[in-house]
Amino acid sequence: MTAVNVVLFRHSPRPVELWHLNHRDALILSHESSRARYNSDPAVDESMVRFLEDFEVPTLFRAIRDIAQKHTIRSVSTLGEEDMATAGLLEEFFVTGVSEYVAGTLFKDKLFMRSALEGQIPQPEFRGLEEFTGTREQLLAEGFNLVKPRRSAGAQGVHLLNEIDDEEFAAIPLGDYIAESFIQTPRMVTGDGFAVGHDMRHFYVHEYDATVLSSLDGRDGIAISTSKVYDESSDLLKALFDSSLRVLETIGSRDRVNPFHFEWFIPEDGVPVFCEVGRRFGGLGIPRIARYAFDAPVLEDYWAAMAGEAGTTPSLTRETLAHPRRRAICYARYRVKGEVISAPTSEDFNMAENSWIWAKPGDEFAENAGVVTDNAAIFEFIGTDAGDVEAKLAQARSILDERLVIR
């Protein structure tokens, strides 16, 4: 295939004299609004130009991915100030390989993450909003149900478009947000562990008792437990592993340690749909409950790998995934607006492996929990099977319902 240099320049070709690229192996990505400005003298060979409807991140990824089907990409560059950072990231993604900085960006920024993974795994429909000047109704008409911050976690800042009004929508800094379609399922699971480069070393599936977003809508908290996937379907377990590995191979560092906390929707058809991934371990004590259920020294092995030690953890394949020896749950009780009238103590929860209670009589909470880390208490439970550990959780919830009074 012909090797080409890809140049991003959304403005008129005249300031940077793009006609110097004529008869050279280059392709120019420009904005449709600049098309008329190419009728100049000297002229740019328009066979070299791809005019794009917008310069949003997903559009640029798609355009360069299409070019890569026909050409070897030698470089991605720009002389446009507003596209400098994006061009650098695209250069590494398509040409030189992902650095630690770009890997961190791809894992943190949901718009870059989804754009890089488009076509690789099932995920919601999405679009960037940096150039969006339309209305809330327009997004709904296009099939987008929610907007969320590109760089937050724990459902913080997520807005369902049919639950806010136009004034609230106008107050959202859209350039920092992404729009997505809504996946109709109450089931969300996680994949947690780490890989050395793209070599998977630890992988464990846990399951929320509700989607993170719905848990914040009038519920008393959220629980995450050893997933029932291990009892139900080896095919689903393998699909989660395969899809997670595909994500790591696409946006993860090739030779550094990649910790991960995946979230996957599981619709009725059983095909995992990608929600997001963090380059970290999951909160709510996930590494500990993996240790309780699987006897897995996740953090010990992670720090050994970070220190460059060979370790004894073998590489995983879809056929050698660990299965739980017992079951574990971590439960977070959310804060609610009001004054704490009464609260239990850790001594009231002898069924729990660990308990942390932060709400004390006299405390005042200014608002309801807006993110999963806004907790009044956290508990960890271990059981011989799912029924055993769920009974302990039910007992603890009953005590909290009776003794944690906030008005």
From TrEMBL:
Sorted UniProt keywords: ATP-binding, Ligase, Nucleotide-binding
GO molecular function, one term: ligase activity
Keyword Ligase listed: yes
Record-annotated ATP-grasp domain positions: 113-307
Gene3D superfamilies from the UniProt entry: 3.40.50.20, ATP-grasp fold, B domain
Record flagged with keyword Transmembrane helix: no
InterPro entries noted in UniProt: ATP-dep_AA_Ligase, ATP-grasp
Protein name: ATP-grasp domain-containing protein
